[in-house]
Amino acid sequence: MKNSARDLLASYIDALYPIIYINHFDFKVIDDIVSDIVDGRKVVEYNNGLGIVDFKTKSMMKECDLFNFLKLVKDDGYEHSLLIVLKDVHNQLDSPEIVSMLKYIAERNLYNESYNASIFIVSSKLSIPEELEDLITVFDMPLPTVIEIKSIMTEFTKDLDIDVSEDVLSEISLSFKGLNEFQIKQILNLAYQDGGCLDFDDKQLILSQKEQLIKKAGLLEMIPVHETIEDIGGLENLKEWLYKKECIFNQLDKAIKFGVDIPKGIMIVGMPGCGKSLAAKATAKLFEIPLVRLDVGRLLGKYIGESEENMRKALKLSEAISPCVLWIDEIEKAFSGVGGSGGGSDVTTRLFGQFLTWMQEKENTVFIVATANDISKIPPEFLRKGRFDELFYVDFPNDEERRKIIEIHLKKRNKWNKELDIISLVKLTGGYNGADLEAIVKDAIENCFIEGKEHLTTEDLKTAQRNIKSISSTLEKRIKEIKEAVKDMDLKPASNPENKMAAKPTSKRPVGQAGGAAIMGKSIAGMVNPAFWLKG
Questions:
Q1: 3-12, 31-40, 380-389: which has the minimum mean pLDDT?
Q2: What would the mean pLDDT of 228-241 be, rounded to a whole number?
Q3: Measured between alpha carbons, how far is residue 155 from residues 134, 162, 389 in Å?
C-alpha cells in the first residue's frame, strides 16, 4: 500500500502536478511516504495549529499564519527543489489572499523552468475552492489489498507468537477489507486483548468496529436485523436465488479463488406492503453481513459540490464496512428529478451518475438491494444489464400465500387454533397485501380484548376484514399504473406459482464457520420469527 502510494506521488511530482490534495487523517503515514520521495528536495511544513514546523523532528519553529508562511517560502523554489506540506488548512482555502498565493506558486511550477515547488495539502476533510480546481489533484490513499492485509496480520501474529491457521487468515483478511492499516492494527490489538488469539469469532468484533465508522460519519444508517429469510411468506423464486448467493458470501475467499464473480445485487420491484423491505433485511441476515441503508436525502448539502462529496464519502464508507448489504429503499423517490432542469434536479442527476458509475465499476463485496414500487419512474439506465445480477417482481400474495400469512400472524400472537376457518377468510382477501392481512389479525385480536372475549373466532376475523379495505381497492388507479409499467419488462417473478418450497443448497465450510443454516450457533428453524409479509 505505502509503496504504491509512494510511487504514484513521486510520478505526480515528476509530472509537475502543482498542488496535490491528500485526503487522509493519519499524518504519520503521509510523512513516511513524503520522506521516501524527498530525493534531495527541501521540505517545509506548515501546521494549522502550530505554525512552521520542522518536517523531520516535528518541533515548532515559528508561530505564523498560513498567508505569511506562503509569502515566506514562495520564492524558495528558485533556489531548491521544494516540497511544501500544508496540514489541516482546509478551513482557510476560501481566503482570496491564500488562493492567490497558492496560484502564484502553482503557476510558477508549471511554466517557469527555473522554479520547482510542489504543494501537498494534507487533511481528513476535502475542501477545494473553485479557483484552484484545475490546479489541484486529489489523492486518495489506497486501502490495503487482501494480500497486504494478510501481511499485516502475519506480522502481528509473529510479533506476539500467535498460531493462526491459513483459513482464519484468509477469512478474517476479507472482513478487514476496506479498512486502513491504522484501523486494522487497532482491531487486531483489541482482538488479542479480548481473547489472546485470532479466530473466526473475531469477524463479529470487526463488524462492531465497522459500525463505529457508520455512526461517526452520519451518512449511512446501520439497520439492526432480526428477520430471517424464513420470515418471508412465499417469494420462493427470490428465496432460492438468495440461497445460492449465500453459498458465495459464506465462503467468499474460496469463491473468489475459484473464479466466481462477486454478486453485485438485486432490484426488487412491485406492490407496496408485499415484503420488499423485509427481503432486504432477510438478505443481510442470510449472508451474515451488516445491513446499511442509503438515504439520498441525507446526502444533500447546501453548498456547491457538498452533495456530490457526501455521496462519494457514503459509497467509500460502504466499501470500508464491506462485506455488507447496501439497501436503497424506494429508489424511484431517491433519484426523482433525474434529467430535469433546475438546481435540485441538476444535483440529483449528478448524484445518480455518480452512483451508476460506482455500481458499474465496483469490485468490492457491497451487495446492493434496491427496492421500488413504481419502476416507470426509474431512469432506464439504471435497469441496464450489468447493474444488478437480477431484477425481481413482487405481486400480491396468492391464495396459499395469504393462508400462510394469516396463520403466521395468529401464531405470532398466540391466537392460532384449529377451529378457525382460515380458508373462508382467504377467499375474502383477494388483492390484500401482507400489511393488510396483518392489520386484520391485529384489529380482530384488539377488538376481542376490548370486548372481554377469551377466544378469537372466525367471525371476529371476518368482522375486522370488513372494516379494512385492501390496498388494491384504495389505490386501484395507482396499482393499475404499476402493473402496466412492469408488463413489458424483463422481470423475474419473485413468487413461484406452484408454491414449491425454495431449496436450501448445501455447502462445505471450515469448522467453526457458521452458514445459512446456523446463525450464532443456533439453527434458523429454531429462530423463526413468524412475521411473514411484514409491511415493507
A1: 380-389
A2: 83
A3: 42, 10, 38
pLDDT at 340: 55
Span of 95-109, 308-322, 483-497 with lowest mean pLDDT: 483-497
- Nearest Cα neighbor of 366 from 333, 388, 399 is 388
Runs of H (alpha helix) within 364-454? 399-412, 422-428, 434-451
Nearest-angstrom CA–CA distance, 221 and 22: 27
Query: For residue 522, is pLDDT > 50?
Result: no
User: Which one-letter DSSP state was computed for residue 197?
Assistant: S
Better-predicted residue by pLDDT, 185 or 211: 185
Task: Produce one character per residue of 320-336: b if its CB has 16 or more CB atoms within 10 Å, e if not.
Answer: bbbbbbbbbbbbbebbb
Please state the φ and ψ torsions of residue 46, each to the nearest 5 degrees.
-125, 130
Q: Count Cβ atoms below 10 Å from residue 267 Cβ, excluding itself.
A: 24
Give the chain's length: 536
Structural element, H or E, at residue 370: strand 366-372
In the block, cell 490534495 appears at: 21
Q: What is the pLDDT of residues 414-433, one digit of tens each?
A: 888 888 888 999 999 988 88
Q: How far apart are CA 253 and CA 242, in angstroms?
A: 19
Distances (CA, A) of 91 to 20, 49, 94, 101, 121: 17, 12, 7, 16, 12
- Which cell numbers in the block locate residue 389? 445480477
